[in-house]
Amino acid sequence: MLIASVSGASLRLGGRDVVKGVSLDLHAGEVVALVGPNGAGKSSLLRLIAGDARPDQGRISVCGRPLEGWSRAALARCRSVVPQDTQLDFAFTVLEVVLIGRSPHGTGRDENRRARNIALDCLERVGASHLTSRFYPSLSGGERQRVQIARALAQIDGIGAEGGRCLLLDEHTSNLDPAHQHGMFQLAREVAAEGVGVIAVVHDLNLAAAYGDRIGVLDRGELVAFGPPELVLTPAVIGQVFGLACVTLRNPLTGALALATAPLPPNPIQEGLRA
Fold this sequence. Notes:
By secondary structure, the protein is an alpha/beta fold. The protein has one domain (about 1-275): Rossmann fold (3-Layer(aba) Sandwich). Helices cover about 35% and strands about 30% of the residues. It is built from ten helices and twelve strands. It has helices spanning about 40-50, 70-80, 95-100, 110-125, 140-155, 180-195, 205-210, 230, 235-240, 270-275, and strands at about 1-15, 15-25, 30-35, 55-60, 65, 80, 165-170, 195-200, 215-220, 220-225, 245-250, 255-265. It has a six-stranded mixed sheet with strand order 6-7-8-3-9-10, sandwiched between helices. A hairpin with a 2-residue loop joins strand 1 (about 1-15) and strand 2 (about 15-25).
């Protein structure tokens, strides 16, 4: 099932093209990782797919319907987003924050009881059950990140697989220690196995290679490569986009594609011109 489709999407902000003619697709059961340098357009592309920004050109569909054909509430029931940073300074408990994800599903005694059970289950999935009664502002950055992932999972829980579900993650492991980084990507794979389409903005190329079914490499707003990790994360692409020397190998513990990188040596011609 096609979960999201981006066709020739462009977005201009502040007089600059931050997304330029990007086309890609996302299928149920798939994890797509978006990588690229700072300012490459990864988060802007995610905002377009989420419906939080409208493209200046191109078309975007989510769960079989053009974005403009969705009401905000209906879209929120099948598509959830974990942003880079969520400012929430009110003294909500962790459970109350996760329950915010259930707000598009309505209220009522039965729904409220069901929502609480779903929220508790999602907190357990992210390893944060022990935080349930804590006040959200008192949490560390990594704890907040896990709570936001639980909130996003709760938001799309219970939608029939025939309707499609989409989970959008914007650097969702940036504040986590290495063990929790792997844990949250393993969870993303588990969620994908349940029929959800997952797109994750990632800075760590090895995490992208280990957990992404396909990788999208963005540079200056353009999608310069899109496909399986072995075909996309090549020394040529890494050198061109990131300015790094790269050697690809296999992780001896998992067999997944892994990358060893280092700064490119100085170009003697350019060094001579500077002199």
